[in-house]
Amino acid sequence: MADDKFPGWHGTTILAVRKGGEVVVAGDGQVSLGQTVIKGTARKVRRIADGVVCGFAGSTADAFTLLERLEKKLEGAVPLARACVELAKDWRMDKYLRNLEAMLIVTDGVGLYVLTGAGDVLEPEHDVAAIGSGGNFALAAARALMDSDLPAEAIARKAMAIAADICVYTNGNLTVERIAK
């Protein structure tokens, strides 16, 4: 989030892991203002349109605006990749949307995408994606665990626990959604 608009606001770590025919999206529940935890049980991973799971970091109201737009783009059986690109174009070009402060991880169990307000639709390498204040900690931990025998959900939970131990803006109150294909 832009520090000039929301100084000191931090929160949420979202992690997606794709392994063994399933994708797991996990998010912690922490929202902090400076050194104070404002809420520890925020739910920033949810199912949206038929079979799509999304995790978001940043402003909740902004993320909900983006999720509603993404759901509309998915109507009529539009492929997820195309809907994500269309949303990213709108987000970048629309005068109102370009001020939204959020990032999204979106999956339908096959595709896995990170969407940003800079117009990015990124397909992560190594089948792991992370966003938010503790995203890099969770990403590093999950990538290190990918070669293990652990399934996707166990990797996500363990990586999020590691991130929560390192990042003061991440806690252990997880919301986990799983899609098996």
What does this structure look like?
By secondary structure, the protein is an alpha+beta fold. 30% of the residues lie in helices and 30% in strands. It has a 5-stranded antiparallel sheet. Strands 11-2-3-12 form a 4-stranded antiparallel sheet, covered by helices on one side. The longest helix has 15 residues, at 60-74. The radius of gyration is 15 Å and the shape is globular. The N and C termini lie far apart (34 Å).
Q: Which features characterize this protein?
A:
181 residues, alpha+beta, five-stranded antiparallel beta sheet, 4 helices, globular
Summarize the structure.
With 181 residues, this protein is α+β, with helices and mostly antiparallel strands.
Topology as a string of helices (H) and strands (E): EEEEEEEHHEEEEHHE
Helix content: 25-40%
Uncertain regions spanning at least 5 consecutive residues: none
What is the number of strand segments?
Answer: 12
Largest sheet: 5 strands, antiparallel
| Outline | globular
Number of discrete helical segments = 4
Secondary-structure content class: alpha+beta
Topology:
Blueprint: E1 9-11, E2 13-19, E3 22-27, E4 31-33, E5 36-39, E6 45-47, E7 53-58, H1 60-74, H2 80-93, E8 102-107, E9 112-115, E10 121-122, E11 128-132, H3 135-145, H4 152-166, E12 175-180
Antiparallel strand pairs: 1-4, 2-3, 2-11, 3-12, 4-5, 6-7, 7-8, 8-9, 9-10
